[in-house]
Specification:
The protein has three helices and five strands; from the N terminus they run βαββααββ. By secondary structure, it is an alpha+beta fold. Strands 1-4-5 form a three-stranded antiparallel sheet. The protein has a two-stranded antiparallel ribbon with strand order 2-3. Strand 2 and strand 3 form a beta hairpin. Helix 1 crosses helix 3. The longest helix is centred in the first third of the chain and has 16 residues. The chain starts with 11 loop residues before the first strand and ends in a 9-residue tail after the last strand.
Length: about 100
């Protein structure tokens, strides 16, 4: 099975996500929300199972992701991929150093 993606001919750039560019920050949150709540590829919808079973809406998840990114982005472990032609965020990697003790 072949899945045609709109980005197959794109030139992609990668960068560390910071809060300095508000539009990229919001696009990153929207990209993650789309990914978790569902992306349609042909006749299939690819989504995170818990978002599906709990009926989490994209807008609600996007607000959660914005809050999450606001708390972890300064650690420097959040990255975005952008399409060089459009400047749009087409991928996000969001990670954090989890320290429950707050050290």
């Amino acid at each position: 099975m072949t899945i045609e993606l709109p980005y197959k001919d794109a030139t992609v750039s990668y960068q560390v996500l910071t809060q300095s560019d508000d539009s990229l920050f919001k696009e990153a949150a929207a990209c993650l929300a789309d990914t978790f709540t569902g992306v349609k590829l042909g006749a299939s919808i690819i989504r995170e199972p818990m978002c599906y079973t709990r009926h989490i809406l994209k807008d609600d998840f996007e607000n959660f992701v914005l809050d999450y990114l606001n708390h972890v982005v300064e650690q420097g472990y959040c990255f975005i991929a952008t399409d060089d032609k459009t400047g749009m965020v087409i991928g996000v990697y969001a990670c954090e150093i989890f320290d429950p003790a707050g050290n």
